[in-house]
Design brief:
four-stranded mixed sheet; Dihydrodipicolinate Reductase, domain 2; alpha/beta; UDP-n-acetylglucosamine1-carboxyvinyl-transferase, Chain; globular
Length: about 350
């Protein structure tokens, strides 16, 4: 059995999420102790518990008895069953963090997977569902016939109530991946072609034209790049007042005309009480600018999410702005489950086969 120390590295929930995904993929059981020991409220949170319960349905996984706040998990996966599934995280528990434990093994299900998930669509210390849709999923298309995420409802903190549908049509079995799927190679930024984005807000904010003010300030901040800018505003009914702006920069490279390895950099910011609309825009623009001007081909949010997928394709390589503690922790956990070595040099991360 693989044993993990939940307090290692940044000591957060990523250890549990990555372990669940890779355990389910490889069929190896694991035990993790001191879960989220590095957090103010240690132990399993709603999205971790929801992911564990979801995997019990998807692959008949076995576990010890766990609940909110549990600091130890034993997990033994079974075989993935294709089909339609519905999961409710409850309140504003993060849909994206939940999916980090689920997506990877579902890429190799025997047939189509349709996952309907309810919870929070954005929040602090998490990527939004728009980021997942626009920045991560384009990298995962190499593995499947189809992967598509639809946002049905927005769910803001604290009530949540968001809902998405994720459809995955697998293409390869897990034994066929290394031979058939193009490696992840994101090392050259290329030419900036356009910047897109979405400002999504609860409908209560429409009267004050909050979205328009955010868009105007963001467009002004991005104008120096002299590329087309397309920022969409979406006001939606929701259980809680909230909103966010998500931006993504799209690049092209001569070496990759078919966009097998699309370079897409993201930046975002949340609406918060007392924060001016213009400051929300400036925060998202500043984050995106930092990534653009670093010369990186992968932003710091995407870097930690890609590690386990890179490990399925030894020889993969990405260039990042910086290697976060999240990324390093994910590299360490990934090496426990797969016969790979993760290394970094001059902000380039490589994943290679342990056998050479």
């Amino acid at each position: 059995m693989i044993t993990l120390d939940g307090s290692q590295g940044e000591g957060g929930g990523a250890i549990v999420r990555v372990a669940l995904a890779l355990s389910t993929f490889t069929g190896q059981e694991f035990k993790v102790t001191e879960i989220r020991a590095g957090r103010p409220q240690p132990g399993l949170k709603a999205q971790h518990l929801a992911a564990i319960n979801a995997l019990k349905k998807i692959c008949n996984a076995e576990t010890n008895e766990v609940q909110l706040g549990s600091r130890e998990l034993w997990y033994k996966p079974g075989k993935i069953k294709a089909g339609k599934y519905e999961f409710d995280i409850g309140t504003a528990g993060s849909i994206t963090l939940f999916l980090q434990a689920i997506i990877l093994p579902c890429l190799f299900a025997p047939k189509k997977m349709t996952l309907t998930v309810k919870g929070g669509t954005s929040g602090k210390w998490q990527a939004s569902v728009d980021y997942l849709q626009q920045v991560l999923l384009p990298q995962l298309r190499r593995f499947v016939e189809k992967i598509e995420l639809k946002i049905l409802k927005r769910g803001y903190y604290p009530e949540g109530g968001g809902e998405i549908v994720l459809e995955i049509v697998p293409k390869w079995g897990k034994e066929e991946v290394t031979e058939n799927v193009p490696k992840i190679r994101l090392v050259e930024q290329g030419t900036l072609e356009q910047i897109k984005g979405i400002v999504n807000l609860s409908s209560e904010l429409e009267e004050q034209r909050v979205g328009e003010r955010i868009r105007q300030a963001a467009e002004m901040g991005l104008r120096p790049y002299h590329v087309p800018i397309d920022l969409r505003i979406e006001y939606v009914p929701s259980k809680s007042v909230g909103g966010e702006v998500v931006l993504w920069a799209l690049y092209s490279t001569k070496e990759d005309p078919e966009r097998i390895n699309p370079v897409i950099l993201g930046g975002d910011a949340l609406l918060e009480k007392g924060k001016r609309s213009e400051d929300v825009a400036k925060e998202a623009v500043s984050e995106l600018k930092e990534e653009i001007e670093s010369g990186a081909a992968v932003d710091h949010h995407l870097a930690d999410q890609l590690i386990s997928f890179m490990a399925l394709l030894p020889g993969s390589m990405i260039k990042v702005r910086d290697v976060s503690s999240h990324t390093q922790t994910n590299m360490d956990v990934t090496e426990k489950f797969l016969p790979v070595v993760c290394s970094q040099e001059a902000k380039t991360i490589k994943v290679e086969s342990r056998t050479g």
